[in-house]
Amino acid sequence: MLGTQIKRMCKTSWLSLIRNGWLATATVLVMTLVLSMIGGLLLLSVVANTILADLKGKIDISVYFFPATEEQGIMAVKKSIEGLREVREVGYVSQVQALDEFRERHKDDAVILSSIDELDANPLEATLNIRANTPEDLAFIAGYLKDKNYPIVDKINYFENQRVIDRLSSVLASIKSVGLVMVLALAFVAILVAFNAIRLAIFTAREEIGIMRLVGASSWYIRGPFLLSGMLHGMFAAVLTSLMFYGVIWIVSPKVAFLLPQMDLFGYFQSSFIQFLGVLLAAGVLLGGTSSFIAIRRYLKV
């Protein structure tokens, strides 16, 4: 008996969607726009985290020493740093090596080479390049060097790199915040559109509702099809959005791979497609169900 009633409710809900086809289509399209924003924010979060992780993984700490510093003093600093358990390795580049590498990089630029030759002394500084065990250890190592305040150290470049990462993180966080506000605004519009669609469906089916009341149909049996209609709007929008993303990501993935070789966006999307669809289905059903519930409470008195 219960199974038969559920089947009838589903059939009634489907017929209601067909009867109000244009409005149902408009509702699905508006919900698709909202779900596209949600999907975009999810993918943006993945790409942003990949970029930040890659940047943090490539950052090391370069300690520059004043040109007149003796190598013995640099080696003492190097030994002190190597004693930290957060340090993976410390590379040393002498002034002579730095000059040789500079000449190699600019071997085709005669002006720069001649300018270097005219100088009385080597202007380049000896450096220690420090690699940490994890990106999180870099801040500790940089703080250690800052606290030591070695008089022979000219500058430490970690802080400049960290500012770039912090600025990028701030920009990405702002983009996510703006995106979230847009999602909420569009969700409100989608709820209004779906609300009006269910209200029209209730008005169109007023005679059938009256007959069901007369024959003693339960309140949930009368209200159920309209609640299902709202949920179906969300489900159709979720499926449509997922298929759109599948096609778009398949097209743009090679371009993303060119900019971020370490990221296979399409491969990631394929492996996470079920979870992605699940999130969109949940969001779509929530949007459609909420709007239907409000419309039913207001316009369908049983």
UniProtKB/TrEMBL annotation:
Signal peptide: none annotated. Keywords: Cell cycle, Cell division, Cell membrane, Membrane, Transmembrane, Transmembrane helix. Belongs to the ABC-4 integral membrane protein family. FtsX subfamily. GO terms for biological process: cell division. GO terms for cellular component: plasma membrane. This is Cell division protein FtsX. Residues 181-301 form the ABC3 transporter permease C-terminal domain. The chain crosses the membrane at residues 21-48, 178-205, 226-253, 273-296. Residues 60-148 form the FtsX extracellular domain. InterPro entries: ABC3_permease_C, FtsX, FtsX_ECD. It comes from Candidatus Sungbacteria bacterium RIFCSPHIGHO2_02_FULL_51_29. It is found in: Cell membrane. It is a multi-pass membrane protein. Gene3D superfamilies: 3.30.70.3040.
